[in-house]
Design goal:
The chain is mainly beta and 274 residues long. The protein has 2 helices and 15 strands.
Length: 274
Amino acid sequence: MPVDRKRLGRGLYLLLMVWLVACAAPGGPSGPNSGTSPTPASPLPTWTPTSTPLAPSSFPTSTPSPYARPVPTRPQGHPSPTPSPFPGRIDAAGPLSIPTVQSLPPGSGRSPVRLRIPALALDVPVEPMGWHEEAGPTGVRTVWDVPLRAAGHHIDSAFPGEAGNVVISGHHNMGAAVFAKLSTIGEPNTPLQLGDEILLVDALGREFTYRITGWRRFPEPHASLALRKENAAYLAPTTFPQLTLITCWPAHTNTHRVIITAVLTHITYHETTR
């Protein structure tokens, strides 16, 4: 049965206000407070292009037109990143203003099947990623089912090339740890930088080039509900073509979230997909 993605997005938007995607602690279940947790879509890690509030929440939504140069801003009231205790490590970078290209016509997007980051020599499969509900002492919560040997495309987020936020999560210390290299962004000697390319291939073989505009690494455990809501805002829908990658840090645990955001800069069509 076809998935009503608009209705799905509306229902899950309320869920993303509470839980930000978490990564896996070895052996633990996937979830917002332990293991690998979920959260539906949002913009730039620490910044969102020229934003206006979404009623009734305070989540930002961007409004650049195609070919515009988004100029991200930090959501109102969000604290600045805490200083890194590790010399040389950068926990927040950007925003970098990069021209975007025309997105795909409405309804022409398809699921991503491959993700490549040349600077990291990273090439991993991408699978659709759903969720389930779990009952706990504080009530029922949603838990994203992050694949163990692939990156997971949030099924309520945009498709590659669409005007919207493509959200992809991956484990950094479980299974194939497909985002282990990604989680080290900002550490000394890590090659990934602002402006670097992230390539997404969809089910039709089209290749979409996104370039990194910013990233943020921040602690999640014991965060207040207000802070969780602000963190979730980085995954909210956008009106321009954006990619958001989510994983955790450091390698031995998952005390911090890492969010990297990029904008669409090129689409490569093959003869069979035109």
